[in-house]
Write a structure and sequence with these properties.
The chain contains three helices and no strands. By secondary structure, the protein is mainly α. The chain has one domain.
């Protein structure tokens, strides 16, 4: 596999993952009350616990995108 192919691959993974992250963040923010009620009933959690869980999910996903997509893309761009 060539460097150009890998660079293109990681570039598209960054785009797709950032879009998923943005969609998830907007979804959590826009439907917080509705989603919190459903998840609260499903898992028996309080609203404060759910808010913490949503924040933790978004933070961990953002870190994963940075580590596994953005950093390799930047590294390949610098090597080229």
């Amino acid at each position: 596999m060539s460097m150009d192919t890998l660079t293109t691959f990681f570039g598209w993974t960054v785009v797709i993952n950032v879009a998923v992250l943005a969609f998830s963040a907007i979804g959590v923010i826009a439907t917080r009350g509705f989603i919190s009620r459903i998840h609260g009933r499903m898992f028996g959690l309080e609203s404060a616990d759910l808010s913490r869980a949503y924040f933790q999910y978004l933070a961990q996903y953002k870190i994963a995108v940075i580590v596994f997509s953005l950093v390799p893309y930047i590294s390949l761009k610098l090597m080229a």
